[in-house]
Amino acid sequence: MRHIIRRSWLALLAVTGVLALVACDTGPSRPGAAAVVGDTEISVDSLQREFRWLLDNVPDAEQLREQDALGRISVQSLTARVQHELIAATADRLDLRADPEEVQDLLDELGGETKAATRVLTSPDRVRERIQDLLLLREIGRHYADKLSVRVSGALIANEEPGATARQRAVDLGKEMAANPDRAAELAAQGDQELPKELVLSELIGSEQEVLMQTPLFAVEPGTVVVMQPNPQNGALWMVALVEERSESGASSGRNYPEGALSQIGLQMLRPAAEQLGVTINPRYGVWDEAGMAILENEEDAQSHLFSTDGVERQ
């Protein structure tokens, strides 16, 4: 049970490292705000109180200090706080609730609030909220897993050419595809391997093409070109795809999907809430990653781009 909890929690907080689309935002204009989500301000003071508790109570804090990793904990904490607001808004819209008994069971399995807090890197007063978020993210993914499909024109790009890396080839092709959506299928043939025209989310889970499930393809509006590196650990492989149609229909199949996959889907489906509410990050903590619903250290870490069909990047 404990290894399942650990994997699920990492799926909630660490999965975003493979996705990156930076939203161009100068940060909150409110003094003392670490981030603002809609009308909700996440204060620097509250984040620092959480951070100080971790320094005093996490056994590996000194080792993390020596590795200069403490800043990453602070950013991870802020990411989770922003995600909480987006998860709450999305769950409310879908009328989803976390089971209080399951929340308590997980807390008990982790050794109670104080011990659980040291394991999921938060303070005891927030650990129950974090576990609720974990469960809700999974339920958001379950809500959509059997319902979403898209029609795309796209390709994978892995080969470099003289004067052009795989990334530059992908970005150039994405811009051209966005500027000429009527030629998207023709342009996709310029890639190294064309994508299937029809992608069904449930069919990707557990398949050889599961990495596509981790992309914004199923969460963006039709008429959007997604250019991204689906998995930075998988070499210089890039994806370029114009989402031409998006369908949300059907009912749950009752299939028992892996929790990590559901968390991946749930994370992507926070996008509508993020766009509706708006997310701004204090620059001292980094920049907002629209695709991964997380915070990046800087814009250079971005591994994704979205273009509208007028050829202009959406940031």
Explain this structure to me?
The structure is a single chain. This protein is α+β, with helices and mostly antiparallel strands. 43% of the residues lie in helices and 17% in strands. It contains twelve helices and eleven strands. It has helices at residues 2-13, 44-57, 61-66, 70-94, 100-109, 113-120, 124-145, 166-179, 184-188, 201-204, 259-268, 271-277; strands at 33-37, 40-43, 148-157, 193-194, 198-200, 224-228, 238-248, 279-281, 287-289, 294-296, 304-308. Strands 3, 4, 5, 6, 7 and 11 form a six-stranded antiparallel sheet that branches. A hairpin with a 2-residue loop joins β1 (33-37) and β2 (40-43). α1 (2-13) packs parallel to α11 (259-268) and α5 packs across α7. The protein starts with a helix and ends in a 7-residue tail after the last strand. The relative contact order is 0.20. Residues 1-27 have low confidence and may be disordered.
Q: Could you give a quick summary of the protein structure above?
A:
The protein is of the alpha+beta class and 315 residues long. The chain is 43% helix and 17% strand.
Show unreliable segments: 1-27
Radius of gyration: 20 Å
The tally of strands reads 11
Percent of sequence in beta strands = 15-25%
Strand/helix succession: HEEHHHHHHEHHEEHEEHHEEEE
Q: Estimate the helix proportion, in percent.
A: 40-55%
The N- and C-terminal alpha carbons lie at a distance of 42 Å
Number of helical stretches of at least 4 residues: 12
Shape: globular
How would you classify the helix and strand content by structural class?
A: alpha+beta
Major sheet description: 6 strands, antiparallel
| pLDDT averaged residue by residue | 84
